[in-house]
Design goal:
With 410 residues, the chain is of the alpha/beta class. The protein has 2 domains: 291 residues, Alpha/Beta hydrolase fold, catalytic domain (Rossmann fold, 3-Layer(aba) Sandwich), CATH 3.40.50.1820; 97 residues. Helix content is 30%, strand content 16%. It has 12 helices and 9 strands. Strand 8, helix 11 and strand 9 form a beta-alpha-beta unit. Helix 3 packs across helix 4 and helix 6 packs across helix 10. The two termini are 17 Å apart. Pfam families: LIP (PF03583). It comes from Kitasatospora albolonga. This is Lipase. InterPro entries: AB_hydrolase_fold, Lipase_secreted.
């Protein structure tokens, strides 16, 4: 057992500030999970409390299967309290919720001065709690969030892309801290990250061994119906901030989609450029997507008679729903009072419907476990609302579930 400070197998990189996140061109040869750069995290606002935080840039795969560099953070427990166990620390690969597509909103780059900062800060209590259990934590930024260039936009909710980020940082952690990160890991995510966790669990077999379970807190689901319903509203809504993000994700799945043919002239010319510049909260403002009526977002004909590009957009939205075959135990958590991701937003399908779909898809395994907190169960006084308060409320039950899966089978 080791009680000292971690020493990564790879030499630390001295690139200062955000230059660390700029991928080298061309990328060095290698395979997914190979570290490109590593250094101690120099951004206290991004650090997981109580841990030893490392910033990493590693090889992964983009939505189209091409090599990309993806950034993230790897945190190890306090060695004095938790010496490295035989076989290494169990690992949680954390999938974060929606922050936007602007590089500076990435969890590893956010210095507490963006519209995404409260959303990035909230889960750190949970992640610090994981360290307190003696588990290491890996936190991907996802593809092109933190590392994006002018021609590379974060493919929001594009399932395969997210899965590669969540999984390949596990490999990077094992290679960086050989002998200190073990073979058993779980994926846990919230909101966008809940959906990403389910996709990661689906893609894990044959890519990254050792997955013992996946936990999804208020996972994004059934996006197609929400977008179509929103396109009929004759009023403004801050929730239309998700329209450009979803279009960015659709472009990851189908680069042939032309945003100009999907969006109305006003939305394309005035508002679409904001997706690269603003956090999700910034996109919700009245001077951005929060100030356009639902029925003004898209070119005429949508959703009743979509043109070819809008139809392709719809197909990508449908593919984002995480109804997938998964081989490991899955735990889904949802609060009935959540206003962001809804349990049952009748007449549209919500998380209740997703659980029914997953249960049917995985019926031979019986591995889908649903924890639905009823009305009033989750405290409503959290400034970020019940959508985030569910993370804290569920922590004891989630921890017990993970501990049973991560325990050494010997």
């Amino acid at each position: 057992m080791s009680t000292g400070t971690a020493s990564p197998v790879f030499a630390e990189d001295a690139s200062a500030g955000d230059a660390f996140h700029t991928p080298p061109v061309p990328l060095p040869d290698g395979i997914p999970g190979d570290p490109i750069r590593v250094r101690r995290l120099d951004n206290p606002a991004a650090a997981v409390p109580g841990g030893e935080n490392w910033l990493v840039l590693h090889r992964s795969e983009g939505a189209d299967g091409s090599p990309v560099a993806t950034s993230g953070i790897i945190a190890l427990p306090d060695r004095a309290a938790h010496p490295v166990p035989e076989g290494g620390y169990p690992l949680i690969s954390w999938a974060h919720g929606t922050v936007g597509a602007a590089n500076r909103c990435a969890p590893s780059r956010d210095r507490g001065d963006t519209g995404a900062s409260p959303m990035n800060a909230h889960p750190r209590t949970l992640l610090g709690h994981f360290l307190d259990q003696g588990w290491a934590v890996a936190m991907t930024d996802y593809e092109a969030l933190g590392t994006g260039t002018a021609g590379h936009l974060h493919p929001y909710l594009c399932g395969r892309s997210e899965a590669m980020g969540v999984l390949d940082i596990v490999t990077a952690a094992r290679r960086l801290f050989s002998g200190e990160i073990g073979e058993r890991y779980a994926v846990v995510g919230h909101s966008q990250g809940g959906q990403a966790a389910l996709f990661a669990a689906h893609y894990a077999p044959g890519r990254v061994a050792g997955l013992v379970g996946a936990a999804a807190i208020a996972p994004a689901n059934h996006l197609l119906g929400l977008v179509r319903a929103g396109a009929l509203l004759g009023q403004v809504n801050s929730g239309f901030a998700f329209t450009p993000l979803l279009l960015a994700g659709a472009l990851g799945g189908d680069p042939a989609i032309d945003p100009e043919q999907v969006l109305s002239p006003r939305a394309f010319e005035e508002l679409w450029p904001h997706v690269r510049q603003r956090s999700r909260a910034g996109l919700s403002r009245p001077d951005s997507w929060g100030g356009i009526r639902g029925d003004e977002q898209f070119r005429a004909g949508y959703p009743a008679a979509p043109n070819a590009h809008q139809a392709a957009f719809d197909r990508q939205l449908e593919a984002m729903n995480p109804d997938l075959p998964i081989t490991v135990p899955v735990r889904i958590t949802q609060a009935a009072d959540d206003e962001r991701v809804r349990a049952d937003p009748a007449p549209l399908p919500g998380t209740d419907a997703l659980v029914a779909e997953l249960t049917a898809t995985n019926s031979p395994r019986g591995n889908i476990h649903y924890r639905r907190y009823g009305p009033g169960a989750v405290p409503a006084d959290e400034p970020l609302g019940i959508h985030f308060a569910t993370i804290d409320h569920d922590t004891p039950e989630l921890t017990a579930w993970l501990a049973a899966l991560l325990a050494d089978p010997d």
